[in-house]
Amino acid sequence: MSHTVEILSVGTELLLGNIVNTDAQMLSQGLSALGLNVYYHTVVGDNPQRVRRAVDIARQRADIIITTGGLGPTCDDLTKNVLAQAFGKKLIYDEESARRIRSHFVRTGRPVTENIFQQAMLPEGCTIFSNDWGTAPGCAFQAEGVHVIMLPGPPSECGPMFQYRAAPYLRQLSEGVILSHTIKLFGIGEATVEARLREQMNAMTNPTLAPYAKEGECELRVTAKAAAPEEAQALLRPTVDQLKALFGSKVYGVDVPSIEAVVEDLLRQRGMTLGTAESCTGGLMAKRLTDVPGASQVFKGGVVSYTNEVKHGVLGVSQELLDRFGAVSAPVAQAMAQGARRVLGCDIALSSTGVAGPDRDDRGNEVGTMFVAIATADGTHVKQLHLGARPVRARLRTQTATHAFDLARRYLSGLPYEETV
Amino acid sequence: MSHTVEILSVGTELLLGNIVNTDAQMLSQGLSALGLNVYYHTVVGDNPQRVRRAVDIARQRADIIITTGGLGPTCDDLTKNVLAQAFGKKLIYDEESARRIRSHFVRTGRPVTENIFQQAMLPEGCTIFSNDWGTAPGCAFQAEGVHVIMLPGPPSECGPMFQYRAAPYLRQLSEGVILSHTIKLFGIGEATVEARLREQMNAMTNPTLAPYAKEGECELRVTAKAAAPEEAQALLRPTVDQLKALFGSKVYGVDVPSIEAVVEDLLRQRGMTLGTAESCTGGLMAKRLTDVPGASQVFKGGVVSYTNEVKHGVLGVSQELLDRFGAVSAPVAQAMAQGARRVLGCDIALSSTGVAGPDRDDRGNEVGTMFVAIATADGTHVKQLHLGARPVRARLRTQTATHAFDLARRYLSGLPYEETV
């Protein structure tokens, strides 16, 4: 029988928005890798009645409840009490846990106060998950047809406690694995992708196929469930191949972190270097390229020419071009890329110039009017973008940078710069 | 009567852990600022039956339900259908929304496919939230004693749609006002702040005081509830003044968006310009400075000198310095700042060089060893940072950039560059 999991996160700080629920994400990833279906996340505050109500709902719709938070010594930590009560378990003082807690406090030079030993009270007959990454132990027990697993809230404890304590416990319960591949596309909208795949998606059961929109990019996730990894992979392969063939060069990678990472891999393969000249993206291209560790092998550097003065003085864009066409123009974008290639001494240079808003520029170019260019040993190519009328500044900049990266990807892969859908 | 809110996030990608639920955090912050109590977050997948069950539970325990996700054109977008059904509303085709959706697709040069108009189907008699940040409109309606508000899932749309559409709608529902001021500090740890204020915080009821740690910065939020804004302000003022006095020059602003925005305001006031020379931060400083609209008045540009070649060739750092001290050194940081000031023709230049990891550099400098420098008409100052043993690359870069901005803030405010806590 297949299990269904509910993640119950306890903590008023989550409901106030003081922290984001990264535990739930981490657990969800780990659980789906174990082949366990997560149907609900619930977040509830440090309130015994409401936690109890949430537990009573969870036990109706899941047979595995994983709680995070509320195991520590402070007075609003109540998860263990409520869960033990809900499943008719007594809390029993565990000597071994008490000993570990004491030594942890002594080791970290913190005062050993009475209340810390509250953390050594654990449900009778539970499996104790000793906590080597903090003080509060976790635990697991089965009662009334439900497996209850309690983990500490701090992500630095919850992560390893799941990986090294809860996951081994859960592995015995789960049959099969869930594996997925993510096909990353650029230059095609989610709606278009979905329109093309709707019938196929509806027809598919294993593997399943789902599209996601991401900052102007589109992802297709193919997910298969099987008894063993090899089986799952065998189920995934045909669909992945079919989708790669269907979307052709719009696919920039499968299971890759980002388009900039793909560009850097291509640069490494070709033994080439990259540089940037940024106006509207204001350093975002360089920032994204250097987010990837080891970028220095292929990324030489960049110039953020936010003013015409710098475009002219550092990149050598002629004043005549700037006066005649304005900073937001194809000729200037090209001259910026050529200048960066020369000044930075790189094989490929990317440039961006445009109106990121909030207002039109002095020449009346609309917000969202962008030019990206690439300069290589084979010449220069420029592309004009219209990224919408009332856009979000941050998204405009992100999409413009991605368009520039796509030019580099296409050049390095020997693909045409432009193509029609 | 005081309202209780439940946030219902719809999306299988959340249950698979593909994304973290930042929408719920953003909404929770905004709702508590409106004086609305959030008691539960629920996350459910793209499954009509389970969404319906989640809605039926939410309506029992909340009188405001805010959904995120499931408004887009793809077949697994189902929130509107389920919510309309649950509250006995028909979905009606809205011409105006359809027009806006069409023009958005045309403007952004994407094909207008049939399925995109599914987004123009809206519950009868609802308040339509037009979406200026994407395509899917949101909406709000009241039925059977419950307010239902539906917002799109992508954070870049959900954020502004809440701020500019949902928040004004909700303001009418909340009685009294909750106002807060946020005091932003840099150069002091949250633990230190909390230790100093613990007793005071516990003693306070209205206003309340809460510290938040943010990427190496620290925020103190003072929040007051009152019948009218003036009353709330009167409650807040004394605490804000006291805290500003207590933390002195470690306070870089109150209710300011960021330290870079503060630096740019100071530059405007002084009629001065800024430039950057970045190695380890790789464009992040320039990116953050240009995140602020209108930066071009005070930010001239920057050089991302990720390789020694560019440090020497573009910034004019002497080869002798680079050979003798290495790229990660105080003299090179200073020479980078001086070079940027000269090359970019700006009044103040900031530089960064260091080891962002994952590995030590070739001279054995540990990950987290950073230098930031500032060059002005009055000379140069360099600061060495040790940002910890087990650091995260992204956080190292963010903190290094913030340290550099703090040097500029201190120079422009006539404060000493360094001081002891």
Automatic annotation (TrEMBL), chains A, B:
CDD domains: cinA (cd00885). This is Putative competence-damage inducible protein. Residues 6-173 form the MoaB/Mog domain. It holds the Pfam family MoCF_biosynth. It comes from the Bacteria. The gene is cinA. Belongs to the CinA family. InterPro entries: CinA, CinA-like_C, CinA_C, CinA_KH, Competence-induced_CinA, MoaB/Mog-like_dom_sf, MoaB/Mog_dom. It comes from Flintibacter faecis.
